[in-house]
Amino acid sequence: MPETLPDDLRADVQALWDYHDMRHELRPADVGIGLGSHDLGVATCAAELFHAGMFPRIVFTGANAPTTVDRFPRGEAVHYREHALELGVPDDAILVEPEARNTGENIKLTRRLLESREVGSVVLISRPYQQRRAYATCKKLWPEVDVICASRSLPLDDYVESIGDVDRVINMLVGDTQRITVYAARGFAVQQDIPGRVAEAYDRLVQAGFRERLL
To answer: Where is the DUF218 domain (predicted)?
Structure first.
């Protein structure tokens, strides 16, 4: 049986999950950017949006992190590319940026890779709970580009089941929520408001022991 969210944590986890969903309305863009992570669903979403005509080119960006090296030993972007090819995306429609080790480098190195091309708009494709942090980072580091965010359209319970590790998902959600504030303070991202109910849910989850991804 797949792991499921404990009833006593569900409301707080859902509050963080909903907060990180930017709810952007998809529209065509010049390029889709798949941000590397442990979640192969990012590459699936990128391929689906490519086939839907949302962009003519995909950049997959990412080297490895401690959480991904075992699953993607050749690098996140490389494995994403291979998955997209399996899903029918043409090889000449994919660019790979294999060096980035964090979201800031994802944006900086992808921007550098595309500097010879005219890029006025991008779709950032990420894990569902990475949307807000990715958006804030892009607005800081690539302010002139029009950016919208996208992820696989999965309810929270379905996403937890797809990952197969409820503690990992909660720890990631808590860590990304902390980074919204910390990264803005450090100048890595633009500031984002955190509603009181989200801050309270975050505090309760930290007190419950979900600290693995805290800075």
So the answer is: 43-148
